[in-house]
Design brief:
Blueprint: H1 2-17, H2 20-31, E1 37-38, H3 39-46, H4 50-53, H5 56-62, E2 66-71, E3 74-79, H6 86-104
Antiparallel strand pairs: 1-3, 2-3
């Protein structure tokens, strides 16, 4: 029982630190940090519209968490792996994903 409570509290930490949309963006990008994602591709993967991401992405770029490149009229994003916070963020999201899966799986009898 205690283990389940610990997993829930770790997920709650992520909820406290990041708004939901930002969590989803970071989770998707940090899962494959070297991959460039086109705005519409990222929105499709997250099950949302590009306009819902347009406020969050520049904030993450300006903070040095993501990097952006333009190709014509398209904007692509990926993790800024040279950022001093990259490894810590990646680890937080990886651990939280593990905890989320554990808390959603049925508890053995």
């Amino acid at each position: 029982m205690r283990k389940h409570s610990v997993a829930k509290s770790k997920v709650a930490v992520l909820d406290a630190l990041f708004p939901s949309v930002r969590q989803h963006i970071l989770g998707a990008i940090l899962a494959e940090p070297a991959r460039w994602r086109y705005l519409s591709e990222l929105a499709h993967r997250l099950g949302t519209t590009p306009s819902s991401l347009q406020r969050e992405l520049p904030l993450l770029v300006n903070a040095g968490i993501l990097e952006e490149r333009r190709d014509g009229t398209r904007n692509y994003f990926r993790a800024q792996q040279a950022s001093p916070t990259f490894r810590n963020l990646r680890d937080i999201f990886a651990k939280t994903q593990e905890d989320r899966k554990k808390s959603q799986s049925p508890v053995p009898k």
